[in-house]
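Dear all,

This email documents one entry for the complex benchmark we are building for the journal club exercise. For each entry we list the sequence lines for every component of the assembly. Then comes the predicted three-dimensional structure of the complex as a token string, followed by one or two observations. Please use this as the template for your own entries, and keep the labels exactly as they appear.
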Amino acid sequence: MSDIGKVRLRLPSTIKVGDVVQVRCLIIHPMERIERDKAGKIIDKKYNYINKVVVTYLGKTVSTFDTTQSVSENPYFAFTLKATDPGTVTVTFHDTLGGKYEGTAQIAFG
Amino acid sequence: MTESDEAAPVTRREMLGVLGVLGVLGMVAAAGGGVLLAATPAAAQALGANETVEAGLARVFGGRPMKDGASLIKLDVPLIAENGAVVPVAVEVNSPMTPQSYVKSITVVADRNRIPIVTRVALSPESGKAYMGANIRLGETGDVRAIVEQSDGTLWQIKREVKVTVGGCGG
């Protein structure tokens, strides 16, 4: 699973100043589910899943996702932000094992 | 025993004692942090827990009343999800996003999941629009709710049933 942590971000192809743009992002991550042993008891271990996603734009936090194991494997998230200035959108994913994965996209006005 | 061991000023027993005290201090600090977090539900650390949906909602929202948000919230879920492991969900709220009045958070809840609280998104006026989308898991057929919290603390709720052909939560 060497692909863990690959992040893809997509922006609309043309953005005008002041537009509310929808950003879609995808990360490769197993999002481990609860496992049970043969007796049906939940195995108590540290499951590896993403529990926080932070979106920043122009150095400010725009939105924060708190997520649980009820989110799909290779999760997809969509959110909006108001494009006021050209700059970088950074999406940072944190998982329960301390992994930190980052994806960036540039907002530029065409 | 080697000579250096005998010369060591700290014995194993003393060392364990010190470590034990440190451990207790650490736990006290952690408990204190927990109390602080509980006071502000927005900062609840472990959002996901194995619980019923009622218990989950009570824990996250502290039993605050919820209004019916059918006219305000658009919850976009499929009618039938063939694969419960990947169910696209999108929530859009018809609300202004100004610093005075905006949507503070959107919470997605799957009633029949073992971990009912799926995700909570904290938004800010910079979001421009109260919108979120995600792919979630559904264990079985049941309601999916979206709960919207506005900056003045008002809660709005909407739910919609999703039929699941193959469950996606396992376990």
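Observations: Residues 7-31+48-107 of chain A form a domain with the Immunoglobulin-like fold (CATH 2.60.40.10). Chain A is about 0% helix and 45% strand.
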